[in-house]
Design goal:
The protein is α+β, with helices and mostly antiparallel strands. It contains eleven helices and ten strands.
């Protein structure tokens, strides 16, 4: 899922947008007593007037599911919306959760994914403004947890996507190969660059910050072979191998040993050193089936540049399979 947060001054504009009949709105949940949009707007404004210092009491959170997740039911949407409100600190605030249809006349297009909106009055029932520092980071964490809970497509967070685009050389090469394939000048089907696939595998294997042993076992299930540099019983570094391709962890995002231990996994020498030794001996580390991962839990398209996605989509639309 991808979430977006905005703040504003005017409840009328956002309520009119959410309840616009051309968007086929469905009111999933609310604690407002108003029976129509006019009563709802008046109710929101009355509560916001308790705190004259807050100039922007409107909080609007939109959440979009990945296209691969298909149509989501009422209870999934409600659970995600409830979790967002509670964990961001809006449990005592006015709110409404509205789901829109995939047909969006205002944008003259059809969405490829389900999506919903949460409107929140930032002034709570006691007249206090809820602190909203770092809430975008908090929202991404919530969405990653809900993706796992509801078995949805795992989407890289914004800070991860920023560093995971292919290099300029890789982009140029892949786009050239796509053009050759479209012109039937190339018979061989395209392959995802190994650096992109390894990076996406690392993200998937570490999505819930597991132990280093679980991380190693998950990578092995994805056919990614981690190898560790150990000197005098001290782990010094890590590299990753996929088939015949090998890359050092420092060449990937948060995948070097120091960054891995700081951001992605929990390291306990008593339990993890044996798994490291097994991986270096090409032995498979045991993994609880409940903790297993597979490639269908992520979407490598999220790691490819937009222009390349457009070229791929054009190729697929013309009947070519890449």
């Amino acid at each position: 899922m991808i979430g977006n947060i905005t703040t504003g001054r005017d409840f009328r504009g956002i309520v009119d947008y959410l309840l616009d009949p051309t968007k086929t709105p469905v009111l999933i949940d609310t604690n407002l007593a108003g029976r129509d949009r006019h009563e709802m707007i008046a109710e929101l404004n009355l509560c916001a007037k308790q705190n004259h210092r807050c100039q922007k009491p409107v909080k609007h959170i939109s959440v979009a599911f990945a296209p691969e997740d298909g149509e989501q039911d009422y209870w999934t949407v409600k659970d995600i919306a409830d979790t967002i409100r509670e964990e961001l600190g809006y449990g005592d605030n006015q709110f409404m959760v509205v789901r829109h249809d995939r047909i969006d006349p205002g944008h003259d297009r059809v969405h490829e994914h389900d999506h919903f909106h949460i409107l929140i009055n930032m002034i709570d029932f006691e007249g206090r403004r809820v602190r909203d520092s770092f809430e975008r980071k908090k929202l991404e964490k919530i969405l990653r947890e809900r993706e796992i809970n509801h078995n949805l497509t795992l989407v890289p967070s914004s800070d991860q996507r920023e560093y995971k685009a292919a290099s300029t050389g890789q982009i140029q090469r892949m786009m050239r190969e796509i053009e050759e394939y479209q012109k039937q000048e190339r018979e061989e089907r395209l392959k995802v660059p190994y650096t992109i696939k390894i990076q996406s595998g690392i993200d998937l294997a570490s999505h819930d910050r597991p132990s280093l042993s679980v991380f190693i076992a998950r990578l092995q299930r994805l056919q990614i072979d981690p190898k560790f540099r150990v000197e005098d019983n001290v782990v010094k570094g890590i590299c990753y191998k996929l088939q015949d391709f090998k890359v050092r962890g420092c060449k990937l995002h948060n995948a070097s040993l120091p960054m891995l231990l700081k951001h992605r996994v929990i390291f306990d020498p008593k339990h993890d050193l044996e798994a490291i030794s097994m991986a270096n001996r090409d032995e498979i580390v045991d993994l609880d089936p409940k903790l297993d991962v597979s490639w269908n839990m992520t979407n490598i398209r999220n790691y490819t540049p937009l222009k390349m996605k457009q070229m791929l989509d054009k190729s697929l639309a013309s009947g070519n399979h890449i």
